[in-house]
Amino acid sequence: MYVPGPFQPDLATIRTLIDSHATGQLITATADGPLATLVPWVHHDDDTEYGRLLGHLARGNDHWSTPHLGDALVVMSGPQGYISPSWYAAKREHGRVVPTWNKMELQLRGEFIVHDDVTWVRHLVSDLTARHESHREMPWSLDDAPSEFIDAQLRAIVGIEVRIASVNASVKMSQNRPHSDIPGIIEGLRSDDRPDLAQLVDDINAHRTTP
Description:
By secondary structure, the protein is α+β, with helices and mostly antiparallel strands. The protein has helices at 11-20, 89-93, 118-133, 147-155, 182-191, 195-206; strands at 23-30, 33-40, 42-44, 52-58, 69-77, 81-83, 100-115, 157-172. Strands 1, 2, 3, 4, 5, 6, 7 and 8 form an eight-stranded antiparallel sheet that branches. Strand 1 (23-30) and strand 2 form a beta hairpin. Helix 5 (182-191) runs antiparallel to helix 6. The chain starts with 10 loop residues before the first helix and ends in a 5-residue tail after the last helix. The mean pLDDT is 94.
């Protein structure tokens, strides 16, 4: 992935980004071409630089059982959107501006491992559920459903793991624009009903050291 210098996050930011992404496209190469499946992931830290991604696939999905070539690729995408040149102060100053697209993307590569093990899958589903239920006043857990029902559901899925060996990350939030252009970008995004992207542009550019 091509990542210009201003958009390259540091290691701490990369790890935070991996933690914050709930899903990512699992892509593997096979003799018959690439396979891709959107997977909800849990990121586990370990003694490696980037940790591991844990997830599951439906047993009926051939992705897990099809022999793959080399490492897996997981692509995670964050908020993204169009940036109008009309928002730049530079448009009024000299007019030498063009549209662009702000985006956040992670590409993670690593060994792909299948866990056809109901105990492993149960732990994974418990962790995944806890991640998304923890903010609720009465979080749901596997114990809230009949055990025989949960057992049948777990047998219908297969656990997967990607041991992350390398990461390419790009966080493009107008860091290459002069500081004088940033307020107009934030205002423009808010007027386009993109407060999420406006907040990212604000946060990231508030801490940058370049002009």
